[in-house]
Structures are given as C-alpha cells and as structure tokens.
Amino acid sequence: MASDVLVLVEHIDSELTDTSYELVGKAKDLAGGWNGEAVALALGSVDTSELAADRVLKMAHPSLDNYTPEAWLEALHAVVQERDPKLVLIANSTVGMDLGAGLSGRWGKPIAAYASAITGEDQDVVVTSQVFGGKLLAEAVIDGGQGVCTVIAGSFPGEAGKGGGATVEDLTPPAALGESRTSFVTTIEPEGGDVDITESPLLVSIGRGIESEDNIELAQEFADAIGAAVSASRPITDAGWLPKTRQVGKSGMKVKPKAYLTFGISGAPEHLEGMRDSDLIVACNIDENAPIFDIAHFGTTTDLFDLLPALTEKVK
Ligand SMILES: Cc1cc2nc3c(=O)[nH]c(=O)nc-3n(C[C@H](O)[C@H](O)[C@H](O)COP(=O)(O)OP(=O)(O)OC[C@H]3O[C@@H](n4cnc5c(N)ncnc54)[C@H](O)[C@@H]3O)c2cc1C
After folding, report:
1. Series of mean pLDDT values for 10-residue runs along the chain (316 residues)
2. Which of 112, 116, 165, 305 has the least CB density, counted as fewest CB within 10 Å?
3. 155 plus 216 within the same structural domain
4. Pair 45, 155 in one domain
5. Domain of 93: which CATH number?
C-alpha cells in the first residue's frame, strides 16, 4: 500500500546488521503517521525473529543468501512493484548505495542518499542528508513521499526496531532469479592483523593530518605510553602506512572502545560509522569546523604535531 514504509534489511553471515533494526524503528515511526505498516523485507536466509516490524516479508532463494546486485535488485524491485510502498528505506552501506540507486532507476522514483534525518510532513518526506563528507547538511523533499532513501548507520536508535512480534509472510521469488548472470563465489576476509583494534579499550586513531608514514611513530609512542592500540582512517590504510585491519569505518572495523582519541581525522560519515558508539571520543583537529567535533565529547584545535609529543612526555 502506498502508505507503508518498506525496509530492506541487510545481513552478514546470516545475521542482521545493527542498521537494519535502526531502519525498522524509523519505519514504524514514519508509517504510523501515514496509517501504514512498517514492512521489513528479508532476502535470503536470515533470522528475523527479533525484528519489531508490523510485517516481515521473507524471500528465500539460493541466489539471495549472499548479496549480488543483480539478484537482490531483481527481488527488491519485484516486491516494490507488487506492494507499492510509499517509502523504501535502505542502509547507506556499500550494498545499499548500489541497490538504492538501482531501485530508484528501475522504479522511476527519486532517491535521497546519505540521509541522517527523515520526517514525514503531511504526505511529503523531508530528508536531511550529509554532503561533502558530512561538512554540510542538505535538505531534500520527496514530493508526495514516494521514493527511496538510503540512511547513514547510527542515525536512529536501534532499540525501537527490536523485540519481535511481526507477522511473517513467505514470498515466491521472481522467476528471473534463476537467470542471473552473476553469482556469489566467496567472501574474502582481510588478513589477520598484528593487533585486533575491536578488542582494545583504548584507541589512538590517526588520519590524513598525520601527513606521512614516518610521523606515525608519534602516535605509536603516545599509544604505547597509555597502553592503547593505533587505529586509522581509510587514507592511512589506503596509502599502506598501516594494515587494512587497523582501519575504522564503513569499509573497515566497527569499534566501541572506552576511549577513542583522534588526531587529524575530519569525521567523514564513513569514518563515524565505525566509531560513533565509543564511550568517550576526544578529537584533535586544527579545523574548528571539522565534523568530528559534532560527535566528540572533548576537542582541541591544537596542532597534532605539538600535542602528541607533549602528551607522551606528560604521561611518561
Ligand atoms: C564507500 C566508502 C567507504 C569508506 N570507508 C571508509 C572507512 O571505512 N573509514 C574511513 O575512515 N573512511 C572511509 N571512507 C573515506 C571517507 O569518506 C573519508 O574520505 C575519510 O574518512 C577521510 O579521512 P581523514 O579524516 O583521515 O582525512 P581528511 O578528511 O582529509 O581529514 C584530515 C583532517 O586532518 C586535519 N589536520 C590536518 N593537519 C592537522 C594537524 N597538523 N593537526 C591536527 N589536525 C590536522 C584537517 O583539518 C582535516 O580535518 C569511505 C568512503 C567511501 C566512499
């Protein structure tokens, strides 16, 4: 019905991602305002018993157990065609960015990506999106409200989407699924690292502001002095200055240490996605407008090249 909010839930190794619960919670909130239902669509084999949607649609097919753009888009589009929801919510993950754009094209409806807030205003949907790596917020209106929205992880509380109790419907997969030209082969896990940053209660995390591989020593010395591990933003691991296993964020590790101390990290949404749940966040960045300060509990605009040696000295 064109008053329902459909959430495509995501799963990794048959387990729902946290964002799936966050989106279901938001869908309930929005659908309630339009007298519709919060409907979760689960493609492939995954346990959905904890989802607190009004309705869970399950579609089982071997080609849906692991994500492939072709099969998932075929299945998602078939459900959208049949159910005609008002709004489709998808995580703004690597998978979601792919699928959201694909669905928007096939369905012929608009997409608002990088959403961090969504409100229903009468029949319209107002979406606040983070643009330019989170430095600016942009507001977009989906006139009449029918469209796709991809949502940044951590934008809404997950608790509202948990608790179970949904009516479950099993759907018949579209025949075209048997004709997919792409198939999932295997998952390639990153190589085991020297340090497991997800286990460390204290992280000293460095970004592009560190400028060169040689300067990483400054962060390592401070980390050693306080018993922390060194983690990093993506430019550092892309440059090969630290192994990929030290990367925090969307395409890296999700961490939740007691304290996350950042030096020269701007706070792009893809980085925040991996660390925003840390108990304490402290940021050092010379740019007072850096988005990291929006979520940091404490911050300083001191130059990291002055601060790191001074902190190490002080602790020693
Ligand atoms: C699909 C996708 C997935 C991604 N996945 C990830 C991911 O998993 N993790 C991730 O981190 N990024 C990821 N990114 C990249 C992300 O968008 C950003 O480009 C990246 O996080 C920026 O890293 P940074 O903050 O180190 O660099 P920048 O954004 O360049 O910020 C450097 C900061 O250092 C500050 N600075 C400079 N000099 C100093 C100094 N002397 N002292 C103090 N501060 C200083 C600057 O003011 C600036 O704010 C992804 C992007 C995409 C599109």
Report:
1. 91 89 97 95 95 97 93 97 97 93 97 95 91 83 92 90 95 91 84 79 98 97 96 96 93 92 95 92 97 96 98 95
2. 165
3. no
4. yes
5. 3.40.50.620
Q: Are residues 139 and 221 in the same domain?
A: no
Q: Does residue 186 lie within any of the structural domains? A: no
- Distance in angstroms (rounded) separating the CA atoms of residues 283 and 294: 10
Q: pLDDT value at position 151?
A: 95
Tell me if 102 CB under 6 Å of ligand 1.
no
Asked whether 266 lines ligand 1 (CB < 6 A), one says: yes
Residue 191's pLDDT is 66
Per the domain annotation, does 192 fall within a domain? no
133 lines ligand 1 (CB under 6 A): yes
Q: Same domain, yes or no, for 283 and 218? A: yes
Q: Where residue 260 sits, what CATH number does that domain have?
A: 3.40.50.1220
Ligand 1 pocket mutation pick from 222, 234, 262 by most atoms within 8 angstroms of CB: 234
Give the C-alpha separation, 254 to 231, whole Å.
11
State which of 210, 286, 288, 295 you would mutate to test the pocket of ligand 1, scoring each by most atoms of that ligand within 8 A of its C-beta: 286
Residue 193, phi then psi, degrees to nearest 5 = -100, 175
141 in a structural domain:
yes
Atom of ligand 1 nearest to the CA of 301: 43
Residue 234 near ligand 1, beta carbon < 6 Å: yes
- The answer for residues whose C-beta is within 8 angstroms of residue 147's C-beta and 6 or more apart is 87, 88, 104, 109, 110, 111, 112, 125
Measured distance CA(118)–CA(23) in Å, rounded: 11
Same domain, 124 and 174: yes
Q: Yes or no: say if 167 and 54 are a contact pair by the CB < 8 Å rule.
A: yes
Q: Give the closest residue (by CA) to ligand 1 atom 43.
A: 285
13 CA to middle of ligand 1, Å? 29
Domain count, the chain: 2
258 CA to centre of ligand 1 in angstroms: 22
Helix (H, G, I), strand (E, B) or coil at 53: coil
User: Does residue 242 form part of some domain?
Assistant: yes
Q: How much is the pLDDT for 121?
A: 86
Contact 150 CB / ligand 1 (< 6 Å): no
